[in-house]
Amino acid sequence: MAFIEQEEINRIRSSASIVDIISSYVPLTQRGKNYFGVCPFHEDHSPSMSVSDEKQIYKCFSCGATGNVFTFVENFLNISFAEAVSVVADKIGLSLSVKLTTKKETKFKEEHEAMDLALKFYQNNLNTEEGKQAIAYLKTRNLLEDTIKDFSIGLALDQNRLYKILSKKGYSDKLLEEIGLIQKGENGFYDLFQNRIMFPIHNLEGQVVGFTARCYLKEETPKYINTKETILFKKGNILFNYHRAKDAIRLLKEVVVVEGNMDAIRLYSVGIKNVVALMGTSITKEQVEIFRKLRSKIILMLDNDNAGEMATLAVGNLLEENQIPFQIVRLSGEKDPDSYIIKNGKEAMEDVIKNAISFIDFKLNYFKKNKNLNEATDLAEYLKEVIDGLKNTNDSILKEVTLQKLSNDYNISYAILKEQLGLTEKAVEQKKNKKQEQPKVVQNSYDKLCSKILFYMMNDKEFIRLYQTKLGVFPTKEHRLIANEIVYYLEKHKTINLADFITYAENMNLKEEIMTIIRNEKDLVLTEEGMLELLLIIRKKIKKEKINQLKSEMKEEYDINKKMALLEKITELKKENE
After folding, report:
1. Strand duo 326-328 + 297-300: pairing
2. Helical packing angle, 414-436 and 376-389, nearest 10°
3. Of 86, 96, 351, 407, which residue is the least packed, with the fewest Cβ within 10 Å?
4. Which pLDDT belongs to residue 428?
5. Predicted local confidence at residue 380, as pLDDT
6. Concatenated DSSP letters for 361-413?
7. CA pair distance 1, 391, nearest whole angstrom
8. 161: helix, coil or strand?
9. Where are the beta strands (DSSP E) in 19-160?
10. pLDDT of residue 441
11. Partners of 200 in beta bridges
């Protein structure tokens, strides 16, 4: 989180109406005291998200999403918490007193500075005499001067010049090796990238974290060299061009996903700005989560070769399993989007995007490969593959249309196809249920009682006072830690409410535990009598456990006087409990 004082964050939060802010993104309708809208954090078809103007929090009764105005903006726009604070402040006409600086930036400040210097060095090299040949090569690839500048394309020279410059500026060999700029050989350290055109790779926040380097003087193997996995560069957490494309994606509610960096550069340079690249044919769960948060339809357009086709099936299956809306584009005549645009132009590319097909239509064609559908065994295998391909879709109309089409095209009984689909879906459901039956942490009755008390405490300082006078301390560490944070918050700010405490929790190691309590206790009616009853139950439980402990000690004790003393303590505790 940014280094913004809690008091300032609270001031912004209390000045903003959560109803006004959320309704600027999602339509809300008032029902009684609360407002309701379609939840943007899952596939929601009827309003299941409640927004409380009184408590200044929101809660989805379906997926459990909850929080205050900042967490909504953070998750809706897929931005950092600090950026969300800035967005809310801007919407209500307040300005932040400090420039945002994230912990991430502070932690790797020197590493990012070295990467920025490397980028500037590579860019400057293009403007030297030695860079003329590289510029000529880029022109043969139809990359104009504006595109070269927009994407900060540069040139790595030989003779370890980058290493020498960065060393003179005080950067250690260890740091430069850790971020993937140099490598150690028999004669010491040397520049990892030499005599190659450099395409910088940025993280989601727009910081340079790595490079793709292409040979240009002669064809070498490998043609491309990428930065290895480093403390800054985690390939699976990145989508190339995301930081440039995110605004266009949010505006259009659509993202074109391609395979290679050059494909993304080409589409972006001709004006198709909502494009990102996977930097390969595979997709990670982290990238899937990025797409989920974008809440935009994906146009999946991978290379027009066997590898691209297989990847389309694999990536499509993963997107479908995660219920992310998407369509498929399979280019014809050219290997990739880059060459397709060069040959056919922007309008032709826009046309193929508009005419993207459904995933099931792609699979209907894909499963025909290497099959003779006039042969009974091949046809049976084809039909099974198509039916299996329908298992993850929730679109009942699409299922119906597909089964009817298969029945008509291949003269197969619709009833048999429907039965087979039912068996397939049943198997999927059983598998899903089996996963859910895996061992997990179950909250026992004692945990639930403690969670309710903690929820009370997050909402009003009077409940904190009751906790301090009637209980004082939780016997379990996890509840004690949260209670201590609540008490500390009250001591520092002299007041407490749930919306502000959610903000405070953003910067804590206990954030997930606190948000779980809030999600679980959403419907709890807060009264002094209810709090006292909960505290009494916990006190009795603690004393009962103490009685059992003393009884165990009595069994082990042989001294009659000590036995009598333990018995007196047990009797006293029993009276108190009664």
Report:
1. parallel
2. 50
3. 351
4. 66
5. 92
6. HHHHHHTTTT--TTSHHHHHHHHHHHHHHTTT---HHHHHHHHHHHHHHHT--
7. 41
8. helix
9. 29-31, 34-37, 49-52, 57-60, 66-67, 154-156
10. 39
11. 211
Distance CA 437, CA 196 (A): 53
Contact criterion met (CB below 8 Å) for 73 and 65: no
Distance, in Å, from the CA atom of 9 to the CA atom of 23, rounded to the nearest integer, reads 21
How many whole angstroms from its chain centre is CA 193? 32
Using one digit for the tens of pLDDT, what is the confidence trace for 166-175? Answer: 999 999 999 9
Residues near 470 by beta carbon (within 8 Å), at least 6 away in sequence = 532, 535, 536, 539
Q: How far apart are CA 368 and CA 372, in angstroms?
A: 8
How many Å apart are CA 446 and CA 355, to the nearest integer? Answer: 57
Q: Tokens standing for 27? A: 């339509």
- Please report, for residues 343, 525, 572, the alpha-carbon distance to residue 552 in angstroms, rounded to integers and kept in the order given: 85, 39, 17
- For 432-459, the three-class secondary structure string (H helix, E strand, C coil) is HHHHHCCCCCCCCHHHHHHHHHHHHHHH
Contacting residues for 97 by C-beta, under 8 A, at least 6 apart: 4, 5, 8
- Cα–Cα distance, 296 to 326 (Å, whole number): 9
What are the tokens at 123?
A: 């860019």
User: Cβ contacts of residue 60 below 8 Å, gap of 6+?
Assistant: 39, 41, 42, 44, 48, 49, 50, 66
With left for phi above 0 and alpha for psi between -120 and 50, is residue 93 left, alpha or beta? left
**Cα→Cα distances 447→2, 291, 477, 480, 501, Å:** 33, 35, 12, 12, 21
The whole-number pLDDT of residue 577 equals 54
Stretch (H or E) spanning 10:
helix 6-15
Paired tokens of 487: 């008490």
DSSP label at residue 423: H
Rg (CA), the chain: 31
- The residue whose two tokens read 């932690």 is 107
Q: What angle do CA 165, 234, 265 make, to 5 degrees?
A: 80
How far is residue 554 from each of residues 260, 440, 542, 566, measured CA to CA in Å?
74, 37, 18, 7
Place of tokens 């309003």: 47
Residues of the chain where predicted confidence (pLDDT) is lower than 70: 1-3, 43, 99-106, 428, 431-444, 522-524, 563, 566, 570, 573-578
Distances (CA, A) of 189 to 170, 171, 180, 193, 230: 15, 13, 12, 12, 17
Pull the structure tokens for residue 445: 């009755």
The residue among 552, 104, 47, 81 whose CA lies nearest residue 570 is 552
